């Protein structure tokens, strides 16, 4: 599950203004000396009796501050119909701070450090929130799940999702991000190939890593160049591809480099898994045999695009 939301005052839209009060005294203990985790919610513009199947509509116009990660491939357009739909159907508008992708990490870090976090950061991967949890700036969204009926329904009814959500919890037992949820496995990244050239050489679409290697060998021998390149320095392919080798991912999926081995009942280093070694070996052999351009692991997007447009490269990683 990909963490899409770093929650600050996200629950403004769903249940309140983010004010919380510990009902058990300054030390958090109740009358019996036990920890009291109840959170008092002060509602603001919330719907009464909001439940599964209802469309949220703010009682009064609600404006949320949001930081938007602006990608060059599809720059922000405030005339997008999404914003019109949000206002007309939900009575919600966004006060948008647009941050270029190239400045994203630095800008978020500076914003957090200055204590100027807005209501909502709309694009943050699970794990990236960890450095900011101790500051107390982030809303522990796990305290508010009961006010989110649609999420609660999916956690209850979709097999395995609730268990995966537990992986988001920090040392304090709470989690601070909301993931995108899919009932079934969704691969947003994979491989793309130049179908025209494949057809010219009578190559079928590869269905396995071995078949990919065979296809690349034909293309190398016929065209004289390394036929495969990568977007994003391999961060995507070596992330999603790792699962088929029986390993945790590299690149974007490496995170803190630790995975839980269910069979052994212990945590292990990702890079020590046999499947991880098999994956590294496979791709290193592709580069050694002139099938994968070694510069694919360091080149920028413009170089990748140039290789594909010129058909010097015919296979690449990509997303939907």
TrEMBL record:
<dbReference type="InterPro" id="IPR006059">
    <property type="entry name" value="SBP"/>
</dbReference>
<dbReference type="InterPro" id="IPR050490">
    <property type="entry name" value="Bact_solute-bd_prot1"/>
</dbReference>
<dbReference type="Pfam" id="PF01547">
    <property type="entry name" value="SBP_bac_1"/>
</dbReference>
<protein>
    <recommendedName>
        <fullName>Extracellular solute-binding protein</fullName>
    </recommendedName>
</protein>
């Amino acid at each position: 599950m990909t963490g899409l939301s770093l929650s600050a005052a996200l629950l403004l839209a769903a249940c309140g203004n983010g004010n919380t009060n510990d009902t058990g005294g300054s030390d958090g203990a109740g009358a019996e000396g036990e920890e009291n985790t109840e959170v008092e919610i002060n509602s603001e513009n919330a719907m009464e009796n909001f439940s599964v199947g209802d469309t949220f509509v703010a009682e009064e116009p609600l404006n949320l501050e949001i930081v938007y990660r602006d990608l060059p491939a599809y720059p922000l357009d405030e005339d997008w119909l999404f914003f019109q739909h949000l206002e007309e159907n939900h009575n919600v508008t966004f006060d948008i701070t647009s941050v270029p992708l190239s400045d994203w990490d630095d800008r978020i870090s500076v914003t957090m450090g200055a204590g100027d976090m807005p209501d909502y950061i709309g694009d943050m991967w699970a794990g990236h929130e960890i450095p900011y949890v101790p500051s107390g700036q982030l809303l522990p969204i796990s305290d508010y799940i009961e006010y989110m009926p649609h999420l609660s329904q999916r956690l209850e009814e979709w097999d395995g999702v609730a268990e995966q959500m537990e992986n988001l919890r920090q040392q304090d037992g709470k989690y601070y991000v909301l993931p995108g949820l899919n009932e079934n496995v969704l691969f947003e990244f994979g491989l793309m190939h130049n179908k025209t050239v494949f057809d010219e050489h009578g190559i079928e679409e590869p269905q396995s890593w071995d078949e990919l290697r065979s296809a690349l060998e034909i293309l190398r021998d016929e065209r004289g160049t390394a036929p495969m390149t990568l977007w994003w320095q391999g961060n995507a392919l070596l992330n999603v591809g790792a699962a088929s080798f029986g390993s945790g991912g590299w690149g974007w999926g490496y995170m803190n480099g630790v995975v839980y081995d269910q069979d052994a009942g212990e945590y292990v280093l990702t890079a020590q898994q046999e499947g991880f070694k098999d994956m590294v070996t496979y791709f290193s052999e592709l580069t050694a045999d002139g099938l994968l351009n070694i510069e694919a692991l360091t080149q920028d997007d413009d170089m990748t695009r140039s290789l594909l447009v010129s058909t010097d490269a015919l296979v690449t990683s990509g997303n939907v």
